[in-house]
Design a protein that fits this description.
ten-stranded antiparallel sheet; DNA-binding; globular
Length: 172
DNA sequence: TAAGTGATCTCT
DNA sequence: GAGATCACTTAA
């Protein structure tokens, strides 16, 4: 039995969503084939004040989905070759998202997007079957003892406070 | 440890 | 319009 996560799931506190996303399944339907992998690692980017977030300096063309409603994808291109996948949380107007950094068999945010054939075509689309990329609850329970929190990767530019906050969660 | 790679952002 | 930056990966 599996259940597709709806907007309601994502329209909550970002840290809570991130915590509960661990153990859920990222599901991709692409050219007639469906692939699913369990989410194993995520990072929180929450609010206007988070200096590590793209939203820290207000809305731009790129980060627009972060300011939109929950349950939509925010996908951006970086380092000239990598796509990053985020799911938007919280209500419209409040910029927040969870970066999906790893699934079983594809560790690393850019590896996972390559694995699932994810690019800008999905940016801004909702996490539903219609868009071809969504998240399912397949009743896997991840106990807190198996979740490790640590500082987010590659955000040293955000200053010590925001760089050190333990907003990266992964299953160990 | 460092190179690769190009869109996006922030100034001029 | 130019220059810097970048929520990374790979190969060494």
């Amino acid at each position: 039995m599996s259940q597709i996560l709806t907007q309601k799931f994502f329209n909550r506190q970002t840290e809570k969503v991130a915590r509960e996303l661990l153990g859920k399944f990222l599901v991709r339907r692409y050219r007639g084939k469906t692939t699913a992998r369990m989410i194993t690692e995520v990072e929180v980017y929450d609010g206007f004040n988070d200096k590590a977030s793209h939203a820290a300096r207000g809305p731009t063309k790129r980060n627009a989905p972060m300011f939109g409603p929950a349950g939509h994808w925010y996908i951006y291109f970086t380092y000239g070759m990598h796509w990053m996948l985020n799911i938007v949380t919280r209500e419209a107007g409040y910029p927040a998202a969870v970066l999906i950094r790893g699934v079983q068999g594809a560790n690393g945010p850019a590896r996972l997007t390559r694995f699932f054939k994810i690019d800008k075509k999905l940016n801004g689309l909702p996490a539903t079957k219609e868009s071809g990329l969504w998240v399912e609850d397949r009743r896997v329970r991840v106990q807190s003892a198996y979740i490790k929190k640590g500082p987010r990767m590659g955000v040293g530019y955000a200053g010590p406070y925001w760089a050190r906050r333990r907003l990266r969660l992964r299953i160990v």
